[in-house]
Write a structure and sequence with these properties.
Blueprint (H helix, E strand, L loop, with lengths): L1 H17 L11 E7 H5 L2 H13 L2 E7 L1 H9 L5 E4 L2 H8 L4 E16 L12 H11 L3 E3 L5 H13 L8 E3 L4 H11 L3 E4 H7 L6 E4 L6 E9 L9 H11 L2 H9 L2 H4 L5 E2 L11
Parallel strand pairs: 1-2, 1-3, 5-6
Antiparallel strand pairs: 3-9, 4-7, 4-8, 4-9, 4-10
Helix pairs in contact: 6-7
């Protein structure tokens, strides 16, 4: 009898181990944001995302890549929402019909940076003329080469300067803005950077801003909602929550204040609700 009771107890224990019982608390809400390295390297996301989580309850997993890669992640349904800065590529992407809203968020600008000695003599010259001088001098230029919004802008400037960059003077990192600035600094070369990342890392670099202020150097960011048309894994409600939040007055105020305490100037200008055609005027 004791053996039978023992066997029954063992069976009950095994059965109990196989049955987890009532479900525990539901998993936390989590979304995937594909964004540019500049929003991460500048420190902006460190300010915004905790506030978004506090306000919405959504946790955020960030994939910081070039804008081209971020768009591709959206296309494959591997991100819920995008924060990117490559307008021409974004417009082509929107025409594919897999995304929802595309909303204006903010802008800053691009700057050409290089060594203080300025061997190509570009200081104070307009950006297209500066690119031509760099090529003529065959001074080292370090490109991101990563299909990012910054890389797209760089290619546009070379094209307007009538230059096909090639040769040992033209080097590519295939990496983000922070790493590309570091390489340019080490090599005593020039590069194109968004102003925010440059200012955030300026104290660690031997690079000066040498060309700035052109209307053509405007750097505009949009948020793009992905939809289930891109794939079953996409969470449209998460995309809407993030997009609505980042263009809301509290988030826009945070964007406008970011950088002021440390640099004496905002690193981004909030633009939600503005006429994009009027930016930079």
């Amino acid at each position: 009898m004791r053996y039978v009771m023992f066997a029954l107890a063992v069976i009950a224990l095994i059965a109990g181990c196989g049955n987890p019982g009532p479900a525990g608390p539901s998993a936390e809400k989590s979304l995937i944001l594909a964004t540019t390295t500049s929003t991460q390297d500048s420190g902006l996301l460190d300010e915004l995302l905790p506030a978004f989580t506090r306000d919405s309850g959504w946790q955020v997993k960030t994939l910081a890549v070039g804008s081209g890669q971020a768009l591709e992640l959206g296309r494959r349904g591997e991100a819920d929402v995008l924060l990117v800065h490559s307008p021409a590529a974004e417009e082509a992407f929107m025409a594919e019909g897999v995304a929802g809203r595309r909303l204006l968020v903010m802008h800053n600008d691009f700057v050409l940076v290089g060594p203080a000695a300025d061997p190509a003599g570009i200081r104070g010259t307009p950006s297209v003329e500066a690119m031509g001088k760099i090529a003529a001098a065959q001074a080292v230029f370090v490109s991101r080469g990563d299909d990012s919004g910054t890389n797209a802008k760089e290619k546009d400037l070379w094209a307007k300067a009538g230059v096909t960059p090639e040769g040992s003077w033209y080097q590519s990192t295939g990496q983000g803005m922070g790493e590309t600035l570091r390489v340019a600094s080490e090599k005593g070369g020039y590069t194109l950077s968004d102003r925010a990342t440059y200012l955030a890392q300026r104290d660690t670099l031997s690079l000066d801003i040498l060309s700035e202020g052109d209307p053509g150097l405007l750097n505009v960011y949009h948020v793009i909602e992905m939809t289930s048309k891109a794939g079953d894994r996409v969470q449209p409600e998460a995309a809407t929550a993030f997009a609505d939040w980042i263009v809301s007055p509290p988030a826009q105020q945070m964007i406008g204040q970011f950088g002021v305490a440390k640099f004496g100037q905002p690193l981004f200008t909030p633009d939600a609700g503005k006429d994009e055609a009027a930016l930079g005027r």
